[in-house]
What we know:
Elements: H1 24-36, H2 49-68, H3 70-74, H4 83-108, H5 114-122, H6 139-160, H7 166-194, H8 198-217, H9 229-234, H10 242-259, E1 270-272, E2 277-279, H11 285-292, H12 299-312, H13 314-332
Antiparallel strand pairs: 1-2
Helix pairs in contact: 2-4, 4-7, 6-7, 6-8, 6-10
Phenylacetyl coenzyme A binds at residues 57-58, 61-62, 65-66, 69, 96, 127, 129-130, 145, 149-150, 153, 156, 217-221, 226-229, 232, 242, 292.
Amino acid sequence: xxxxxxxxxxxxxxxxxxxxxxxxxxxxxxxxxxxxxxxxxxxxxxxxxxxxxxxxxxxxxxxxxxxxxxxxxxxxxxxxxxxxxxxxxxxxxxxxxxxxxxxxxxxxxxxxxxxxxxxxxxxxxxxxxxxxxxxxxxxxxxxxxxxxxxxxxxxxxxxxxxxxxxxxxxxxxxxxxxxxxxxxxxxxxxxxxxxxxxxxxxxxxxxxxxxxxxxxxxxxxxxxxxxxxxxxxxxxxxxxxxxxxxxxxxxxxxxxxxxxxxxxxxxxxxxxxxxxxxxxxxxxxxxxxxxxxxxxxxxxxxxxxxxxxxxxxxxxxxxxxxxxxxxxxxxxxxxxxxxxxxxxxxxx
Length: 348
Ligand code: FAQ
């Protein structure tokens, strides 16, 4: 059985997944009581099939986002304006690869295989964040991505770190710690450029103008159009909704943008004294749905790059499989000298 949302055939708990059977309603009630008490659900614990399926959908899409998300910034590694910036950008892009690995591993604890997750991405059956389908046209885009894209991701992920599934929540803690460095280095770049020459300030403003709306879309559709939120909140995967997080982000960044005399491309953006919130105009939801369904500026290029990397990595996967098989054979081979024939024998 596949646990990816696109090919789940059976919503029921697979027999013997955790050695239990019996009344599913009672199991669900006990599961929900654990969540209510704030306990983490761990791999191997009984869980409703729909909880597993939602987690695999979300975690695998999150993993894909980290991996595809290496591409926009990776394009600027060779063009970074100084050695310091190049080192920071290299480290950041490498971190994103690591985040993808943690997340694929977290999904694997739910019986999703790496192959099926990657296939779903490459065959366009799985989504990844809308944000990575836009081009990085100038160096200031890199600062804006670090500050605002990573900043938006942190707002979302700090909430997910409190979620009910142990491996995902723990991955989020580590990822957030690393993302906070990404955000700081991006913010530093934006501050520097905003206080630089008029040309530099104009460059950074242009980057904000182009990235602003796609960044707000990262939080997902309005709660009223978000089919997954009710289930995810009921089972404590999400503890805040898409709109709540988007509002937190606006309240966090608008004062910082103002301090730098930078603006957002939204004439309706204002501070509402009564609610204490920054409130702006409506997001272009047609653009959002178009982009996440595959018709954004760079969707085709991003997937082509991933497909190429996957094909070029085929020999590595084959070599690793052959190595693992040899290790397993060596571990099971009968000993000829009475000593245990450990995995070390395979290195000869
Ligand atoms: N992009 O019912 P909801 C990063 C889809 S990491 C694309 O509201 P949900 C770090 C959604 O999947 C950024 N698709 O869904 C970095 C669903 O379709 P499905 C990634 C989106 O799950 C920085 C449909 O719309 N972060 O940036 C988006 O309750 C720099 C209906 O939506 C995560 O993935 C979107 N923005 O809420 C890396 C965090 N929004 O699957 C490199 C984990 C919605 O039913 C460089 N994920 N959709 O076919 C989440 O928190 C949630 O899944 C949401 C969506 C908030 C993304």
